[in-house]
C-alpha cells in the first residue's frame, strides 16, 4: 500500500531540511543507528508547514476525541499551537472549540502564576503532542502533570516511532509499546520505521544502501509488539 501523500511530504521535508539524516549515529543506548531524527530542525516555514500538516492529518485519521492539545516544554510548545491551526484548516467546524496548552519548566510566582499556560486542563480530554518517545520518561512526567491538573490523557501523537526495543527491556517491547501497556492509551506516529523502509520502494528515498542498513537495524533491534 502506498504511503499517504502527507507522509510522503513529511519525509521529503524531513530529509531535505536535515531533520532526518542517514549515516552512522551513536544513540544514548550506545547502539549505532543508520538514521537520526530531530524535529527541532523544522524551524523554517517551508519545513514547519509539512510537519504541522502531517500531525494534523494523523490526528484526524487516528486520534480519539479530545478537548485540548498539550505540548510539553520545550519542543511540544510550537507543535501544539501550529498543529491546532492546521487542524482548523482541515475541519474548522469540528475543531473550532479545541484549545491548546503547555507547561513551564519552572513555576511562575507572579502574574497568573502556575506551571500551565493556555487552556485549563481540569475536566478536559487531553492529547499530548511531542516529537518522539525515547525512554518514555518525559511522557510519563507529562501524563502525571496533566492528571494532577484534573485532566484525562486520551492519547499521545509523535512524529516518529522507531519501532525499536528498549535497551534494558524484554527484547520485544519498544518505549511506545511500554507506554501503551502502562496507560492503556493510543500512541500515534506520523511515520514508523517501517514507513521509512517502504519509502525506499516508492522512490521517496532513492539510496538503496540506506534502506538496506535500516532494514538490518530493524531486524537486529526491532520491537515485535
Q: Any overview of this molecule?
A:
Helix content is 42%, strand content 24%. The chain has 7 helices and 8 strands, in the order αββαβαβββαβαβαα. Strands 5-4-3-6-7-8 form a 6-stranded mixed sheet, sandwiched between helices. It has a two-stranded antiparallel ribbon with strand order 1-2. Strand 1 and strand 2 (32-37) form a beta hairpin. The mean pLDDT is 90.
Summary of the model, kept short:
By secondary structure, the chain is an alpha/beta fold. The protein has seven helices and eight strands. The strands form two sheets. Strands 5-4-3-6-7-8 form a six-stranded mixed sheet, with helices on both faces. The protein has a two-stranded antiparallel ribbon with strand order 1-2.
User: Structural class, judged by helices and strands?
Assistant: alpha/beta
Low-pLDDT segments: none
Biggest beta sheet summary: 6 strands, mixed
How many strand elements? 8
How confident is the prediction overall: mean pLDDT?
A: 90
N to C succession of SSEs: HEEHEHEEEHEHEHH
Cα-to-Cα separation, first versus last residue? 21 Å
Helix proportion of residues, in percent?
40-55%
Name the strands of the widest sheet in spatial order. 5-4-3-6-7-8
Total helices: the number is 7
Radius of gyration: 18 Å
Coarse shape: globular
Amino acid at each position: 500500500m502506498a504511503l499517504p501523500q502527507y507522509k510522503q511530504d513529511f519525509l521529503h521535508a524531513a530529509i531535505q531540511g536535515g531533520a532526518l539524516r542517514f549515516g552512522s549515529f551513536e544513540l544514548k543506548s550506545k547502539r549505532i543507528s543508520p538514521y537520526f531524527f530531530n524535529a527541532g530542525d523544522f524551524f523554517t516555514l517551508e519545513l514547519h508547514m509539512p510537519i504541522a500538516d502531517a500531525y494534523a492529518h494523523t490526528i484526524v485519521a487516528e486520534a480519539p476525541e479530545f478537548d485540548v492539545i498539550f505540548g510539553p516544554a520545550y519542543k511540544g510548545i510550537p507543535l501544539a499551537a501550529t498543529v491546532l491551526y492546521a487542524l482548523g484548516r482541515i475541519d474548522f467546524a469540528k475543531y473550532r472549540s479545541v484549545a491548546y496548552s503547555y507547561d513551564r519548566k519552572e513555576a511562575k510566582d507572579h502574574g497568573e502564576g502556575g506551571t500551565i499556560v493556555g487552556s485549563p486542563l481540569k475536566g478536559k480530554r487531553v492529547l499530548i503532542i511531542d516529537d518522539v518517545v525515547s525512554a518514555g520518561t518525559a511522557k510519563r512526567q507529562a501524563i502525571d502533570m496533566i492528571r494532577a491538573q484534573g485532566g484525562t490523557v486520551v492519547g499521545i501523537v509523535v512524529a516518529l516511532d522507531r519501532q525499536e526495543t528498549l535497551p534494558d527491556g524484554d527484547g520485544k517491547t519498544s518505549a511506545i509499546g511500554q507506554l501503551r501497556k502502562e496507560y492503556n492509551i493510543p500512541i500515534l506516529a506520523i511515520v514508523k520505521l517501517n514507513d521509512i523502509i517502504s519509502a525506499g520502494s516508492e522512490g521517496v528515498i532513492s539510496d538503496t544502501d540506506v534502506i538496506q542498513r535500516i532494514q538490518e537495524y530493524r531486524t537486529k533491534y526491532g520491537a515485535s509488539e
